[in-house]
Amino acid sequence: MIKFDKICLSxxxxxxxxxxxxxxxxxxxxxLSGRSGIGKSSLFGLVLGFIVPDSGSVFFDGxxxxxxxxxxxxxxxxxxxxxxxxxxxxxxxxxxxxSGFKANSDADFxxxxxxxxxxxxxxxxxxxxxNVSELSGGERQRSALIVSLILKRKVFLLDEVTSALDKELKxxxxxxxxxxxxxxxxxxxxxxxWSESPNARMFDMEALEWKR
Length: 212
Hints:
globular, about 25% strand, 10 strands, 7 helices, four-stranded antiparallel sheet, alpha/beta, Rossmann fold
């Protein structure tokens, strides 16, 4: 599904990757571990084409990620991080604006579907009437996850998406993604609920090897 082939990457003279090889198969749940600045989030930027490697290639579904294929990649993969930017205005209006894009015309943004996911993620329905700027970090994170689930993405790149949640919610969110066999998930998180999942594979970004 996602393959990093001999990736070399540096920023401002600092080497991030030197010949990185990593493959994430379809349906795998992978937790990327390592200290801050090691390059965990950079992997997601490489997949989505926001970062171009100095050398080497990234493949998504067997196709090399480049300026021609990257838009198709972004239609299939969802990226959600801890600093969700959901624009301005009411949350309900944000959901409506996303549903209004031509590319999302087949997505089910009905009230029933939104309410179902809000309930699963412990979000109150009255949040739809609140301005996005009034939402907590955890509420914005879960709202972004709702959008990605409605869009039926099959690949999820999750960067500290449970950082603002309490313990029980962390478990609930992790279970939603790691217990769904159809989803391919790569996760960066310091929350042990992800790494403790029996479905998780651990990749050590410092040793550049699988831990399990």
